[in-house]
């Protein structure tokens, strides 16, 4: 008796998922510099196995294996790119206030508004232009990604005003990246205002964390 292709796909996907859970690189104390390469390969294999099995009506088991191999290669390539790009950015940026977070699927470069803009201004401070120029140089070296620039504020003031200010600030950062060689078609700007806090708006420290511009780097073949 032959198993339905859904059962075969599910079995292989479950096995791959179990390997992801038991892989020391995925348990993650953050010490493995290639953890996102490994994680991307495992995730790609899981997704590829399921798609391959469902796509191959005549031999779902073979389709799952082929899909897993293709997915693993693609996922590893994305993870490797993000690992390298994040390491380069951290080395190149001079301001300790700028953080680079590698989620395994995208990079988030967070730039605090307090060091980037004067109060109620959307003009980038001259001291930050050099670092944003280095971000642009990095993005030019890694052209196979989309860039989403998201402005955020704290909750002080009117929500509509905060949203408009966050959009102007995102556009100002986008202008500097474009001047540094990042093509217009790669960039999307978003103003979130006070809608996406990462800390409490009840304390000055929390408000300072919420006032930020995020440069999100998304590999194009990760979609």
UniProtKB/TrEMBL annotation:
Gene source species: Lutimaribacter marinistellae
Q: Which Gene3D superfamilies match?
A: OmpA-like domain
Known InterPro entries for this protein? Bact_OuterMem_StrucFunc, Gly-zipper, OMP_bac, OmpA-like, OmpA-like_sf
Report the main location listed first in the record: membrane
The chain positions of domain OmpA-like read 104-221
Name the CDD domains on file. OmpA_C-like
Q: Which domain of life is it from?
A: Bacteria
Q: Where does this one sit in the cell? A: Cell outer membrane
Instruction: List the Pfam families hit by this protein, alphabetically.
Output: Gly-zipper_Omp, OmpA
The alphabetized UniProt keywords are: Cell outer membrane, Membrane, Signal
Endpoints of the signal sequence: 1-19
UniProt cross-references to PANTHER family, sorted A to Z:
LIPOPROTEIN YIAD-RELATED, STATOR ELEMENT OF FLAGELLAR MOTOR COMPLEX
Q: What is this protein called?
A: OmpA family protein
